[in-house]
Amino acid sequence: MSEPIWKTWLHAARPRTLPAAVAPVLVGSGLAWKDGRFDARAAGLCLGFSLLIQIGTNFANDYYDFVKGADTAARVGPRRAVAAGLIAPGTMRVAMWLAFAASFLCGLGLIAWGGPWLVAIGVASILCGIAYTGGPWPLGYHGLGDVFVFGFFGLVAVGATYFVQAGRVSGDALLAAVPIGLLTTNILVVNNYRDVETDRAAGKRTLVVRFGRGFAQGQFGLSLIVALVVVPLWLALRDHQPWRLVPVGLLPVAWRHFRRLQTEAEPAAQIQLLGDTGKLLALYAALLTFGLIMR
To answer: For the chain, where are the alpha helices, taking DSSP H only?
Structure first.
C-alpha cells in the first residue's frame, strides 16, 4: 500500500533539518528578550520566513540533486521523493517556488520593523537556497555548502532576528550566531559524510569528498568544541553571568556524537546520527536561550 501523499510531502520537507530554521530565531529572540526588546510578532514572522526558506531549500535540493544525478538508486541516505518516483520533478519544482514565494511574503511583513533593506536579505536567502544545488555553479557541488550554511543559518539568521526586534546588531548577537552556524553546519557534515561515495561519483565535490573523512571528523569535532565550550565561556565572561554556561552540560552528548561519526559505518546508524545532530542543535539553542534570559 502506498503512503498518503501528505506523508510523502512531509518527508520531502525533511523534518530532521528544521531545527536549523528554528534555532537561530530562538537565540536571536532570546538576545532581544535579554535586552528588553523582544517582539513576539516580529519573532513569529522571522520563524515563518526561516522555516519556509529551509523547506524551499530542501525541495530545491530534492529536485536539483535528481536532475544532476547525485540522487540515484545507489544512494544510502533517506529516500528522496523525486528520485524515488513519488513526486514528479515538475511538481517538486513548483512546490519549491511556492515555498520560496511564501517565505518572501512572510519576510515582507518584517519591513515594518527592519526597513526595506530586509528585502535584499530575503532575496539573497532565496537565491542561495536555489544556488546550493541548482544553477550553473551550485555551491554544494563546489565545497561551499558549509560556508553558505554557517553564514545564512548562523550570522544572518541570528543577526537579522535580533535586528528586527532591537533595531541594531550587537556584538553578543554576532557571538551567539557562531555556535548556531557551526552546529547547523555539522548537520551538513554528517549528511555529506554519509553520501561521500555517491557524491564523488556524481561530481559533487563537498568538503569531505575534497579532503576526506578525517578532515570531516576534525571539522565536526572542532565545531562542537567552539560551540559548547568557547562561545558560552566567552559570553559568561563578557557580563559575568554563569547562566551563559548552561550549554556546556551537553558535552557528554557531543562526545558521543563525535565517536559515532568516527565508528559507525552503517547507513542506518549514520541516518540516526543525522537526526540526533539536529536534536543537539535544537537542545543547544534552547539551553543557550535559557542562559541568555536568566539573570
So the answer is: 5-12, 19-34, 40-67, 89-108, 111-114, 118-131, 145-150, 157-166, 171-194, 196-202, 207-211, 213-225, 231-239, 251-263, 267-293
Q: Are 228 and 252 in contact (CB under 8 A)?
A: no
Q: Please name the amino acid found at residue 76.
A: V
How many other CB atoms are there within 10 angstroms of residue 141's CB atom?
23
Tell me the one-letter amino acid at 270. Answer: Q
Residue 15 per-residue DSSP state: G
Q: Which three cell numbers stand for residue 153?
A: 543559518
Burial, 240: exposed, middle or buried (Cβ in 10 Å; 0-12, 13-18, 19+)? Answer: exposed
Q: How many other C-beta atoms are found inside a 10 Å radius of the C-beta of residue 158?
A: 31
C-alpha cell at 20: 536549523
Q: What cell does 176 get?
A: 551567539
pLDDT tens digits for 25-46?
A: 999 999 999 999 999 999 999 9
Residue 243's nearest CA partner among 177, 287, 180 is: 287
pTM metric for this prediction? 0.92
Kindly state the cell numbers that stand for 98: 511556492
C-alpha grid cell for residue 75?
Answer: 544512494
